[in-house]
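Hi Y.,

Following your request, here is the sequence exactly as I used it, all 153 residues.
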Amino acid sequence: MSVTSGKRPGVNAGDSGSVIPRASVVVPVLNGAATIADMLAGLAAQGGIARSEYEIIVVDGGSTDATREVVSRFPDVTLLDEPRRGPGVARDTGMRHARGEIICHLDADSLPSRRWLSSLIAPFSDPSVVVVGGKTLSFPPRTPAQRYMADSG
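Below is the corresponding structure, written out as tokens. Let me know if you'd prefer a different format.
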């Protein structure tokens, strides 16, 4: 997860009367039907920031499961298609469509804490801050396969 800020070319007020979000959360996904609903619910319920101050952009890299159906249950989430595979390509696509001055990245299998977004963007009140990172907490491995992955790095 990372965050960047700055005046981005092509970001403007848009249509008259439209509200420009302060932040854009870009989520790349491929076959994330099992996890993305919890992540989107966590993003929709962020504390310390009004929902109108941020947009959520999900970029689907060609999912073959029910990812698109799950995302469609969240009407205020923008869903984009990206035929090229890879999270980097999806993040780039999301950034090109983002309207916020601050761009945040979150994976589809992550669960943001209650104040994840407000805490992450708070340092940008200092004009010298251009990049912020956050701490990733993982659940302890429980199964043999999970322990193997944790041990192998």
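The helical segments are 36-44, 67-72, 87-97, 116-121, 144-152.

Thanks again,
Q.
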